Structures are given as C-alpha cells and as structure tokens.
C-alpha cells in the first residue's frame, strides 16, 4: 500500500533449528566417549599348553566374576608356549599390573579333595590374582600351573623344610592330637635344590597352637620294619595312608612362633624326639626297641632303645606329650601278642605287626615308672566255685547270663589236696545278679524233643571250644559256691557227697561192665559199680553221683548206649561213633521218659525205652535171616521190631520175640493176623524188594479180627489169594518166582518146587492173586510154557515163545473151558501140569464172572 509505513521486525541471531545438530553432536561425543571407556584392555598370557582354552568361550575371572574373555590363541614368540590373547573389561584394567598371576581352573579330583566342579557346567576358566596395588601396569604375563601358594587360604601360612617329600602331597592334612587343623597347599624345591619346602595353612582357630618350639613329623602311609624280633608296622589314618599327613605338638612353656619362621619336618615321632619319657619295669617279657604303646588302638608312645647297665636291663618309653597325663600310678601297661586258644586266635592283628603294649588308663597321681604285665587284672566281684573237674574250661572263658556275657573265668586252681576250684570275676555292672545265683557249665548244644516239636538251644561259638559257665538265678535262695554240670542240677541245688545206689534189671549184660559210665545229657552222672545174676536175668548196680540223685525221683528210663550206631538208608549209611571210653567200656544213658515203664529196667536202646510196647511171639521152622532189631511193618510204616531170637524148648522151631508199638498192637494181636517175611528176590523173572539187600529183611504184618492172641506162625512167603498144587514129571525150566499166566497176563507165581516123597513126580506150589482166583475152576487146564517150543520137520517148522519172561524164568499158563468149566476150588486143589497145551485149549475164550 502506497504511503504506508514499513513494519520492522527484530529477528533472533540464532535459529532454534540449529539445536538439532548440536544435540546430535553431543550424542556422538558421548558415544565415542563410551566406546573409549568400555573398549577394555588386550593382554597376553603365556601358558605351557592350550588344552581346555577356547577363544570366545573361556572367561577371565576374579573373585568369581567374569572380567574378560579369551579372544585368540597363538604360538608365543619363543615357540615353546601358547600365547592366549584376552580382552579385559575396562573396569578391571587396574588389576592388570606387574605381579598379577593367572592359572587355568578345570575339574580336578584327588584322594583328598575334589575341586573345579563348577567348570563341568560353565567350562574351564582362567582365574587371576592381582599383584600389589603399587606395581606398574603390565600387558604380558606368565601363567601358573595351579593356584599360587596360600590362595584363598583362611588362616596362617607356615613353611616346613624336609630332606624329601615322601608320600606327602598337596592336600595332605595337618593334625594336632588327631584333630584336623590344616592342610598342605603347596610343595616346591628350595633354592639350593637340596631340600623340599612345604607351604601349609592352619585354620584361624588353631593358629595359637603353633609355638616357637613346635615340631612337625610325618605320619604318612605305612612304615614297617622287619627283624628277628618280629614285624613292626606304623600306620596313620586312612587319609594319611592315601595322601599323607603331618602331626605336630604344642609345648605349653614355649612362646608363640614368629611370622616367617621355617620349621623342620621330621620323618616320624621318634626322630622328632618329643614327648615324656618314663621307665618301664618289663620283667622277663621280651620287650624290643620301637614297640608301640597303644591307648584305645591309637599309638601314644614307643619303646626307646633298650640299655644294659650295671643295674641290669633298663627300658624306657617316649610318650606323646599330650598323652602324658595318662601315666598315673593306677594305670597299667599290658603286654599284647597273638595267642592261640580253643576259642580261636586273639589279637590277630599282632600276627602281622608283632607284639604291642596297651595302656589301661585309670586316673591317679602322675608317675615316672610303670610295670609291664602279661595280662590285665580282672575287675568286678570275685567268686570262687568248687568243681568236680576242670575239663572243658579255660582261662578267660566267658560267664553268660541269658545270652549276655557278664564276666569271665580268671583262674583255674587245683590245690594241694586235689580239689578243683574255678575263680570268676563278675563285671561291676552285673554284681547284683549274684543274689541267689547258681553256676553251671554252659552246654554248647541242647536239644529237647517231644511230641510238640523240637527245641534247639545253642551257646555262643566261643563256648564250643573254650568252654564257658552260665549263671541262673533261683529266687529266695542263697548263692551256692559249686559249679553244677547242668542247669537242671543247678536248679535242684543238691550237693551231697555220697553216691546213691540204683539197681536195674536186664536180660543180659553184653556191652557194659563194671566201671562203665552212666550218662545224663552226655555228662557222666555215675558208673556201674557191680554186675550180678538175678532171678530173671542180670542185675546192674549203679552208683549215681549225689548231684544227679534228685533226677531218680522223676522215674527216668535207662538204656544201653551203643558204641557204634549204624543206620542203613537208600541214600547211604549213617554211622555214629561214641568216645573212646564208650568204645572200650560201654555206657548207660538215662533221661526222663514218660512211658510208664519201670525205672529199674535196662533197655537195649533209647527207642525201646521211649516206646510203649506189647509183646508178640512168631514161630518159624528156621531163621530166614532176621536179626535183633529187624522191623515189623504195616503198609510201609514201622510198628515194632524183633527183640529176641531163641529156640523153642523142644528145639523143633525158632521163636522170635517181638515188640509192637502199643498204639498199633491191638489189631495185630487178634486171630486172623498174619506175619510174613519180606526179603529181596533177584532172578531171571525179575527183582523185588531190592532195598532189603541194604537194610535187611523185615516182617510185613496184616491185622486180624478175631479173639486175642499173642503167638503166630511166621510165613516165609508173601500173602497169596489162592494156593494150588500142580504135579509134573519134570521141572522143565520152572523156578520159584516163575509167572503164572492167563491170556499171557501174569496172575500169580510159583512159590515152591519140590520132589514128591516117593520120587514119582515134581510138586509145584503156585499162588493165584486174590483178584484172579475166580478164573480157576475144577476143569481148568495148566501147561508149561517155559523156554522155547520148537517143531521142525522136512516141510517146515514152528517156534513158539509164550513171553520174554517165560523164556528167561520159565512159566505156567492156564485156561478154563467155556462150557462145563466146573465149580470153584478150595486152597491146595491139585491139577496135573501138562508139558504143552492142546490145540482146543488155546481156542477156549471163557468169560468168568467173579
């Protein structure tokens, strides 16, 4: 617009647009600064080998925190090592200074420790321990083979020097009085290459134990020495055997050690020569230099070299100083060596290590002299018992109460008058058991058997060989100072001295004589004092010891004890042999057997004494092979036995006196009962009752149903159904046992063959089994089928064999006509025995109903 005044606006000198480049510049600068600050530091670490180090994966760690990572691996300039190039985070650059130490951490297992298990998950890594803060920065380092000495050690680090390392290695434990207080953290050669230096660390709570005069000694592995005196073996704990160990002492009067003090590591306690020395009164015991002194199985001292002076032999021992308080006037040194006894071998470890000395510590006043004894003085209440004899007992044998050992036999004594005594010691904790106590010999094996079952009680194995004594309490009674042979007698408590006479009646006195022992449960309770003829046999006079006399009131049964017991079975022969006295003199046993017999009867065996029996008499023309003891059976079960074999007064027959078990006897002592001899039969016709070849013949009984009867004939043939008599002109191959055939089926057998009195014919007795007896009728025909029948002519021939059995053992066949078979026959009916069958007989096909 013309004439208008111009509008003047005042503009700013800097536009806001320029702020954007400025901000971008600031951001770029910050980014550059951040890159410079965080770029880290590249260092080189030289390792002997690069196994387990992976570029981009293996970390550099400090105090468990990753501060860098391996970038690359290359051969070092010298060509002998591997240069590991690692990038260190910027915040850790200050740790990379001179003196910093690097080592590879990987899984490691040894006998004493397992380390680096975390690398199984994260992989191997390189650990760093920085040098001193005042040291200048460094970029090239030499790696260590393992952690530096004292790394992360919590406690005081000590240095030991020794001539050789021996079996001690890194990780070996440091012990004070058997307590682990530290370990070996490093081993290396000294500067002169003539000694070994060991760096050990002691836990802070045990640092005060290290004194200026402390001595360290090696307790590693097993140390042994061999000489004519025996074998000396020194062994520490299992850990020290495997990886080594060091022990040390802490003298009370010594000041604390200075830092940096180097100690000597001695080869052993003897070389360290540290401890309390005492004098030992060894007497005649063969004590030798170096013998260990043990307390609760731990060596606390050792014998010094034995010296001979004008006063005689001088024996001293060096004790660990911390154990010196156990050397009191009440303590005892006890000689221990391997010893053989009926109970076994004691201190078997001494067979290898040789004798040792055991300290039996008891509080008291300290002393500088101790006596060495060959056995410890028993403790507890002393009891002295009188005994008939000391057989089977031994010193140190145990005393038992309800299966628990409560003491031991301390001494066996035989005085000038020949009286035997046993000295016992009951342990202090069991002294109250002596009230009303009675003692008896511990029986190794006790068996009680009755109809309700069998009860077996055994003592501990030690009593089987070494013997032992048991204790039983009898309420409201006083303790009796006598050793009883058995528990039963201890409960009875009788102790009279005069034997009691007891008279037995016996059929004969074979097997026993004057002086034969009388046994009760295997213990000698008396003896046979006399034998004399009685009204009905022999009177056996016994003298029963007074201790066993109360048993006679219980009506015991007496029987002869065989010197040799033999039992024949199909699976073998069992033989039991008694002791030498029984073999030479015989013996009698007795026990309480509730069978109602008189206690004045002497039985031939225990089985007879136990059984309730009834007598039966069997008569035969001769003895077919039976003997005393041959069994009588019914359906395979023993129901009795033969007790006596004699001739009848007329001497025409033999009579067998047999005993039947009372619970079965009634049915077999009736008319109709049968007693048949069973013995082995071996022939071409077969084998029967083969077991009797081993066990002997026996009598098979069949019960009766008639009136009471106690005498029967003894049949020497098996029971038959129907007995028949056949007559023939000749035997023609027949024999006892030959089969009797019907339709070639065995239905009986030949039981006897004999010549007629006038010699005119052969009489053959046969038996038909009861179930086939109805097949025999009055018109039946019998013919011989023994061997082979041959009919040979010019036009040909025939050969006939009835059965294989008849070919071998002979045989008789019979048949009955279809028509006019006739009536049934009675026993012993007579038939002619034809030499062969007629043709028409063979065509008969009868059907005969029973």
Which structural traits does this protein have?
850 residues; mainly beta; 6 domains; 7-stranded mixed beta barrel; 10% helix; PqiA-PqiB_transport
Q: Report the C-alpha radius of gyration, rounded.
A: 53 Å
Gross morphology: elongated
Total DSSP E strands: 64
Between the first and last Cα atoms, what is the distance in angstroms? 169 Å
Q: What's the quaternary structure here? A: single chain
User: How many strands, what sense, and barrel or not for the largest sheet?
Assistant: 7 strands, mixed
Biggest sheet strand order reads: 5-8-2-3-4-1-9
User: In percent terms, what proportion of residues is strand?
Assistant: 35-45%
Which percent range fits the helix content? under 10%
* Secondary structural class: mainly beta
Which consecutive residue ranges, at least 5 long each, have pLDDT under 50?
Answer: 222-240, 449-453, 790-799
Number of domains: 6
Number of helices: 13
Rounded average pLDDT: 77
Keywords: Cell inner membrane, Cell membrane, Membrane, Transmembrane, Transmembrane helix
Subcellular location: Cell inner membrane
Pfam families: MlaD
Organism: Aeromonas cavernicola
């Amino acid at each position: 617009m013309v004439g208008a005044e111009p509008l003047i606006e005042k503009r700013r000198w800097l536009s806001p647009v320029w702020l954007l480049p400025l901000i971008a510049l600031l951001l770029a600068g910050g980014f550059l600064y951040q890159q410079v600050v965080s770029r880290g530091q590249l260092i080189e670490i030289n390792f002997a080998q690069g196994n387990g180090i992976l570029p981009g994966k293996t970390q550099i760690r400090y105090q468990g925190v990753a501060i860098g990572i391996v970038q690359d691996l290359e051969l070092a300039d010298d060509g002998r090592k591997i240069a590991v190039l690692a990038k260190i985070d910027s915040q850790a650059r200050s740790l990379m200074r001179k003196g910093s130490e690097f080592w590879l951490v990987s899984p490691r297992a040894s006998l004493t420790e397992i380390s680096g298990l975390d690398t199984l998950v994260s992989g191997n890594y390189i650990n760093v321990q920085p040098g001193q803060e005042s040291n200048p920065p460094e970029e090239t380092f030499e790696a260590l083979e393992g952690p530096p000495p004292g790394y992360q050690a919590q406690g005081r680090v000590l240095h030991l020097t020794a001539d050789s390392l021996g079996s001690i290695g890194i990780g070996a434990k440091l012990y004070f009085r058997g307590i682990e207080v530290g370990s070996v953290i490093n081993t290396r050669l000294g500067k002169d290459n003539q000694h070994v230096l060991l760096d050990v660390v002691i836990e802070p709570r045990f640092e005060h134990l290290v004194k200026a005069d402390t001595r360290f000694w090696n307790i590693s592995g097993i140390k042994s020495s061999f000489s004519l005196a025996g074998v000396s073996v020194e062994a520490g704990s299992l850990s020290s055997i495997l990886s080594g160990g060091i022990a040390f002492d802490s003298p009370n009067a010594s000041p604390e050690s200075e830092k940096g003090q180097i100690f000597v590591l001695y080869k052993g306690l003897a070389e360290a020569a540290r401890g309390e020395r005492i004098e030992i009164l060894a007497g005649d015991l063969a004590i030798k230099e170096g013998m260990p002194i043990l307390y609760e199985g731990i060596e606390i001292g050792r014998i010094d070299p034995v010296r001979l002076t004008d006063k005689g032999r001088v024996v001293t021992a060096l004790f660990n100083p911390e154990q010196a308080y156990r050397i009191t006037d009440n303590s005892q040194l006890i000689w221990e060596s391997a010893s053989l006894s009926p109970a076994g071998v004691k201190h078997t470890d001494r067979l290898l290590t040789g004798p040792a000395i055991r300290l039996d510590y008891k509080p008291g006043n300290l002393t500088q002299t101790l006596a060495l004894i060959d056995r410890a003085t028993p403790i507890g209440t002393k009891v002295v018992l009188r005994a008939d004899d000391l057989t089977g007992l031994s010193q140190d044998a145990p005393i038992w109460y309800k299966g628990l050992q409560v003491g031991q036999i301390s001494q066996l004594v035989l005085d000038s008058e020949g009286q035997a005594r046993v000295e016992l010691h009951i342990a202090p904790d069991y002294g109250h058991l002596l009230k009303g106590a009675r003692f008896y010999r511990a029986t190794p094996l006790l068996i009680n058997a009755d109809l309700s079952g069998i009860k077996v009680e055994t003592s501990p194995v030690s009593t089987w060989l070494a013997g032992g004594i048991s204790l039983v309490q009898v309420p409201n009674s006083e303790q009796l100072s006598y050793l009883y042979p058995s528990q039963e007698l201890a409960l009875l408590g009788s102790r009279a001295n005069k034997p009691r006479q007891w008279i037995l009646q016996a059929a004969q006195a074979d097997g026993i004589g004057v002086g034969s022992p009388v046994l009760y449960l295997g213990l000698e309770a008396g003896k046979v004092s006399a034998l004399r003829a009685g009204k009905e046999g022999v009177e056996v006079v016994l003298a029963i010891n007074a201790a066993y006399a109360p048993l006679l009131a219980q009506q015991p049964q007496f029987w002869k004890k065989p010197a040799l017991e033999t039992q024949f079975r199909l699976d073998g022969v069992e033989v039991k042999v008694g002791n030498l006295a029984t073999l030479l003199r015989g013996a009698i046993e007795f026990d309480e057997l509730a069978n109602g017999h008189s206690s004045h009867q002497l039985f031939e065996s225990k089985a007879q004494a136990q059984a309730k029996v009834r007598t039966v008499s069997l008569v035969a023309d001769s003895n077919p092979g039976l003997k005393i003891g041959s069994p009588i059976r019914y359906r395979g079960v023993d129901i009795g036995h033969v007790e006596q074999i004699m001739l009848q007064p007329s001497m025409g027959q033999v009579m067998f006196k047999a005993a039947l078990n009372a619970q079965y006897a009634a049915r077999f002592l009736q008319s109709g009962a049968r007693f048949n001899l069973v013995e082995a039969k071996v022939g071409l016709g077969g084998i029967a009752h083969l077991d009797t070849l081993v066990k002997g013949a026996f009598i098979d009984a069949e019960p009766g149903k008639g009136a009471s009867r106690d005498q029967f004939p003894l049949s020497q043939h098996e029971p038959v159904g129907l007995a028949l008599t056949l007559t023939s002109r000749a035997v023609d191959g027949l024999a006892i046992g030959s089969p009797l055939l019907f339709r070639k089926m065995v239905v009986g057998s030949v039981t006897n063959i004999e010549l007629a009195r006038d010699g005119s014919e052969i009489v053959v007795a046969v038996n038909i089994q009861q179930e086939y007896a109805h097949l025999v009728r009055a018109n039946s025909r019998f013919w011989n089928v023994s061997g082979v029948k041959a009919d040979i002519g010019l036009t040909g021939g025939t050969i006939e064999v009835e059965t294989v059995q008849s070919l071998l053992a002979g045989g008789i066949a019979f048949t009955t006509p279809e028509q006019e078979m006739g009536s049934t026959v009675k026993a012993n009916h007579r038939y002619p025995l034809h030499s062969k069958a007629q043709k028409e007989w063979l065509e008969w096909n009868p059907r005969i109903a029973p």
